[in-house]
Amino acid sequence: MIKDSPNPPLDSSSLHACADRAINHHLNPSSPPESPNDGQGLFAVRKGLDAETLLVNASEDLASVQALASHLAFEIDGTPRSVALGICRMVETIQLLVNEALNEHCAGIEK
Q1: CA distance 106 to 111
Q2: Confidence band for 30, pLDDT divided at 50, 70 and 90
């Protein structure tokens, strides 16, 4: 089927602006990196959450990562298995620290 009108022309000014940003990003190391708190990140933590809520969610997320890494470690062999087991052990250690912080926080509330 033949179109009645040709493709619309591209807006070359926006393409040039995009290209300039990309080039400056990669070739201009003197520019400071963007602040992680500039509101442009993909994920954010809602302001005003209490420490217990944050610690409980961190603990549950670590448990999920631990389950994923453990499952993966027993599905593969060789060096990748060693890497997965290393991840499991690091996550376990972090989970112990988060759980201890949660216990200390809750003990402080009960007093």
Answers
A1: 9
A2: low
